[in-house]
Inverse folding.
């Protein structure tokens, strides 16, 4: 079974600074997807960024980028120029590559933005 | 609506009662997922539908949990004889035919179930 581990229950960063959230996973599959989801206090889960395992290039979405290390099974999220609206729970998630699969989530990291 | 909607948003049940939670996916989305999110935890997969077919129910914790999607659109998650350990937020997500290739799921706001 696949597992996703987020070792940082809480992180704090000053506004406009950069923060990195860690995620490791375990799988025996070679084809899969990795995701970072944001869950603000309102509870609506929002996709932040997605990475296909077969792509060597790290995904980027504006201020959000990932460092995908396939051999190390590591998938960290970097948030640049942190903004107050970035404050939320962040979940790392894994999905198998066989089409629509249920996501396996980590326990989440609570990100606090200090003004 | 433009997004996934769920109702009710909050449900309080007495232990032993049956509850039904509804999910309206994004129009046209073929895939629908249910997750259970306990307090302070990440969501855990319960079950998956493609159109009206329930293709995976491996995450349902017991036979008290039942899900259906009879017409391939709206889905209902039913919990019979609720127990205190069923207290959680139940999240629904849907994805399009195109998303079958990248598994991008769109989530609803969830239903918070409290069993007293």
């Amino acid at each position: 079974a696949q597992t996703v581990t987020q070792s940082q229950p809480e992180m704090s960063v000053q506004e406009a600074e950069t923060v990195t959230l860690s995620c490791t996973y375990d799988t025996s599959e070679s084809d899969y997807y990795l995701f970072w989801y944001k869950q603000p206090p309102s509870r609506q889960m929002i996709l932040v960024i997605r990475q296909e395992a077969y792509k060597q290039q790290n995904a980027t979405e504006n201020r959000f980028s990932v460092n995908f290390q396939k051999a190390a099974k590591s998938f960290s999220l970097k948030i640049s120029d942190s903004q107050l609206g970035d404050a939320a729970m962040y979940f790392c998630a894994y999905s198998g590559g066989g089409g629509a699969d249920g996501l396996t989530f980590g326990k989440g990291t609570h990100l606090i933005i200090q003004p | 609506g433009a997004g996934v909607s769920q109702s009710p948003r909050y449900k309080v049940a007495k232990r032993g009662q049956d509850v039904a939670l509804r999910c309206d996916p994004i129009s046209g989305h073929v895939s629908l997922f249910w997750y259970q999110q306990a307090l302070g935890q990440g969501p855990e997969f319960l079950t998956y539908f493609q159109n009206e077919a329930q293709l995976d129910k491996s995450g349902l914790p017991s036979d008290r949990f039942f899900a259906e999607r009879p017409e391939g659109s709206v889905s209902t998650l039913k919990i019979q004889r609720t127990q205190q350990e069923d207290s959680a937020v139940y999240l629904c997500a849907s994805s399009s035919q195109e998303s079958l290739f990248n598994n991008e799921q769109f989530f609803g706001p969830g239903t918070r179930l409290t069993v007293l």
Remarks:
- Chain B touches chain A at residues 3, 31, 33, 35, 40-48, 50, 56, 59, 89, 91, 93, 95, 99-110 (CB under 8 Å).
- The two ends of chain B are 33 Å apart (CA to CA).
- The CA atoms of residues 59 and 87 of chain B lie 16 Å apart.
